[in-house]
Amino acid sequence: MADPAADPEARVLLLAPTGRDAAAACDLLAADGIGCRVCADLAEVCREAAAGAGAVVVTEEAALADADGRLARLLGDQPAWSDLPVIVLTARGRTPDRRLEALLGVGAVSLLKRPLDLIAFRAAVRSALRDRNRQYQVRDHLVELGRQAEALREADRRKDEFLAMLAHELRNPLAPVRNGVALLRAGGADPAAVARVGESMERQVGHLARLVDDLLDVSRIHLGKVELRPEEVDLAEVAATAVEAAAPLIDARRHTLTVSRPDPPVRLRADPARLAQVIGNLLNNAAKYTDPGGHITLTLGRDGGEAVIRVRDTGAGIAADMLPRVFDLFTQVDRTLDRSQGGLGVGLTLVRRLAELHGGWVRASSGGPGAGSEFEVRLPALAAGAAKPGANGRPRRAARPNYRVLVVDDNADAADSLALLLELAGDTVRTAGSGPRALEVAGSFRPEVVLLDIGLPGMDGYEVARRLRGQPDGGRVLLVALTGYGRDDDRRRAAEAGFDHHLTKPADPAAVNHLLAAARRPQCG
Length: 525
Known about the structure:
The protein is 46% helix and 17% strand. The chain folds into four domains: 8-141, Rossmann fold, CATH 3.40.50; 157-222, Helix Hairpins; 231-380, Heat Shock Protein 90 (2-Layer Sandwich), CATH 3.30.565.10; 404-518, Response regulator (Rossmann fold). Helix 7 (191-222) packs across helix 10 (347-357), helix 8 (235-252) packs parallel to helix 9 and helix 12 (435-445) runs parallel beside helix 13 (461-469). The chain is elongated. Helix 5 links the parallel strand 4 and strand 5. The strands form four sheets. A five-stranded parallel β-sheet has the order 2-1-3-4-5, with helices on both faces. The chain is of the alpha/beta class. The chain is built from 15 helices and 17 strands. The longest helix has 70 residues, at 118-187.
């Protein structure tokens, strides 16, 4: 006999005239692979139906003896998707009682004459189970639709929350930048004031650039368009770069940072820029979520064949229910207005994905709210004692040659400000606000370097680059794409159009100077 407990929703609840009839009916259904539960009375049928049933088979006598109306209530109380099939076994030749006819109008009730024709009985039960199965499919579909509608509401809520945070994060740095402009106009003659304002504006612009970069990085990673450029690196050297980048925020919040370096050094194969981003994001996260005057510890080491990075703080801590979610996109532990720590909730998402792209993983732990937190990253390490390649120190800033430079940008403020910086460095500079004007100026000015925006109206930067390369002296010009389009595909298109270099806005003036100091023509990358 099939086990009726194996799938309660597919079983037949049977209230037969006699125990002998019940056993025979169950054996017959078991031959078709149908589970059967024999019930002693109608009350048991109704109780069991609440746990699930594919069909109910009861005698006419039991249905008519239902003075309390249990069966009618069972059928009438079904959810909207459900129409529980009920087969009533009636006496031969008898006209159905009016009470039975009333039951027929309540639900999916069908009548079957006794003594039973076995073929007709099996067919009636199978038909009832097929109908019931379709009902369960409708139910499951409705449940799935409900989940999807709920997921859409949650996604919409998170979208609104994210846009609010984005507006907040963009307005915060814009305020001191605007104030700085006003201060420069009012007190531009005071060198000390100019220096302070310049430092403040530089910090805020850097913050804006990091926000944009984080958003773009998340998009690239989710689209599978991030390509690592691995090389053999020293973990401590990469961490030093990350510490330097995070230092302004750590210092501004008056934290103490302790760095524990490995001895002997740990070497691994990694993209140094991306690995520094992992460590820097963890340090920034610790700095933001720790009250001023806190303590942050960065520990670097090796555990067997793995390089280990641990960032521990004495900050806000993480509740146990939030620990599994801290690496989810746009998630922040605390987003209340009185304790907004800044950021868009993408930093830890990038940490996890970049660690995974390097063949590693990251985990978070915390003793709970107020108990601080620790983030641990583990990455494959090279064998101990691996040979160290030549030094990869930062290029020294050296005096560079001066050039005739053409700056092309339809944003006049951007073009003029960059031109002023280049002129202060000794370059001779012209500007143009459109593609046709750039070609016209280039014909008479004969620039040695062209810093060219891509997103120009009408004739875009790609077309301008191709036309410049087609001019008699176009082959010797250093073409630099200076643009807000920074995807790998954009870099490829720039290289195909003839650009030598690709800088993403807002470009660091030091990077522009270094590029001009190198005065080489590598492929765009």
